[in-house]
Amino acid sequence: MTLPPLALYLHIPWCIRKCPYCDFNSHEQKQALPEASYIDALLEDLNHDLEFVQDRPIHSVFIGGGTPSLFSAQAYDTLFRALRTKLSFSDDCEITLEANPGTFEQEKFEGYRAAGINRLSLGVQSFQDVQLEKLGRIHSSNEAQHAIASAQAVGFDRINVDLMHGLPEQTTRDALDDISRALDSGVSHLSWYQLTIEPNTHFYNAPPTLPVEDTLADIQQAGQRLIAGRGLQQYEVSAYAAPGEESRHNLNYWQFGD
Question: What is the mean pLDDT of the chain?
């Protein structure tokens, strides 16, 4: 029997500020991050799951959060050195790190590459400052564009940009402008998904004014046409990629890998 491919997810739960729409396991940073002790805890957790590896190599890694780019490049170097003593990695293993576009995180991009991270997922959400403020983001539109350029400059040729649509009072034109600015930057992968209001979030208790259903449908249809016209193919509900640039980690979920 051939076993399904094996992927690894690592969660870094801290962020600088909790976004009003976020219902993920994330917590505002109140003091210096406990990088060393948290890495020890991750490795100890892994020890309890090693029996499920069954001699399979890891073919993709995704580091999500929270804001994983709050951790230092040295922390990830230490983590991956330790992981390689417990697991085998395929030669072409995809290793993705979620990163904020803030200036502080950009300074670490080169170090992340040296630590073995070969794909970035940048949480841009919008290129419009007024929307970034409504969403509680701590970066600006200029910082988002600079982050993409900075990542490309240090050798990241696989970059995803996260964008949301259906934002407070957003028009179809504004949503399409976000897509165009992302694709004009040369990225080969786009995660484009609708803002939804989840329980246990600030937006759930104080809902913003969102576009009406007809506008949401117009945004969805026009956005998909624009993305397809720029050569990216939709390969799951909210993910679009140039041919061959699909996220292996995304596909592992959708194709029932382990």
Answer: 95
Q: Inform me whether the pLDDT recorded for 46 exceeds 80.
A: yes
36's torsion region: left (phi>0), alpha (psi -120 to 50) or beta?
alpha
Compute the average pLDDT of residues 70-81: 96
Q: Which of 177, 189, 183, 112 has its CA nearest to residue 151? A: 112
Say which CATH number the domain at 168 has: 3.20.20.70
CA distance 219 to 71: 36
Is 1 within the bounds of a domain?
A: no
Residue type for 187, please? V
Note whether 111 and 156 are within 8 A (CB): no
d(CA 180, CA 156): 20
% helix, strand, coil for the chain, step of 5 = 40, 20, 40
Tokens 């040296």 — which residue? 114
- In this prediction, residue 105 has a pLDDT band, given cuts at 50, 70 and 90, of confident
Is residue 55 domain-resident? yes
Q: In 3-state terms, what secondary structure has residue 95?
A: strand
